[in-house]
Write the structure tokens for this entry.
Amino acid sequence: MSVSFFFAKRYLFSKKSKNAINYITMVSVALITLVSIALVIIMSVFNGLSSVISSMYNVFDPDIKITAKTGRVFSLDSVEEKLSQNTEIYTFTPILEDDVLYTYGDRQMIGKLKGVGSAFTKTCTIDSILVAGEFVLEQDGIQYASVGQGVAHKLSVGLMFRDVLYIYVPERGKKNAIVPTDEYNKTHAYARSVFSIQMDIDNEYVITSLNLAQSLWKYTHNEISSIEIKVNDNADIQSVVKQLQTDLGKDFSICDRDSQHEFMYKITQGEKLITFLIISLILVIASFSIVGSMTMLIIDKQRDIAILKSMGADSTRIKRIFVLEGWLISIIGAILGIAIGIAICMLQEKFGIVKLPGASDNFIVQAYPVRVIFSDILAIASVVLFIGFLTAYLPVRKISKTHKQ
């Protein structure tokens, strides 16, 4: 143990001649502890909410999605062989997706049609999100559709009804036809199932076979808008993305799950960063109590400083003693705050103590979700200790000016 640290620890825990210094020191530790607890809890709640949102999309979104950077469609033949040769890929399925007009009975709406290949059930656990019916897209020459719950509500689609779901898209290259309906391609399917994932998806999507979609848009059997990939369980998705980008070249965009919802991901991370900065500002204000505590301590220890100087201690060593003592306040507060914050998060994760306002059985989660991430804890500790060091150094830097050898 260094001499500076020995004196710093002794000054921190020993009784001062003025009780006010002890009280201010305890208040400083308490403030640092409370702000550290708040940082841990709030960061963990943001992580928990992000995890819940991601889990809602993860069922519908593939591990990796390939799209062309230019043009609406591309040829499956141009990439199929390279995908088949990649040993990290479990399976992949071609997709053709775009906006369409739906009509059902006397109702109509604009939505998205997603035509999927036969391997879609391997890239997407569709059965886990079905709320009615069975996932069948083609059977005995009849085309079926799986309808989002929001779409089913808007169009009043019923699985037991005999009404046909008609699908319209503008015909490419045809404009100003004498009969308006001649400008559109038309097909139909029977609703066979209803799925529910997340409101944005439920309110827009209908899933059909790839054959129906290609026939509707009059594309050939190998023209698609994207490829959805499922990797092996032990595969590193980022490594697969980099390898595919190398294999396929700059004409294709390779996206993992986060990249597929880049805007939402950036918004969530931006809100988390702003909240972190705001609470860090509160920490800066709270840490000024350390300045007051250290200033009073330096005044209280004038005699000790003079004795240390007479014994040969230079200003640097004396300043180090008081800086370490001020820093110890932040270290103790950070350790207590982080430990208590993690404990609260673990209790919340296990018992769901704090409920979401208005939560019911229909909610995905009834209590605030939390998720503690090591990198967040490291960032919190670094910020608390850095701010603590600065506020401890401010009153100490003048010692050399007031006590010259």
Q: What stands out?
A: DSSP finds 14 helices and 13 strands in the chain.
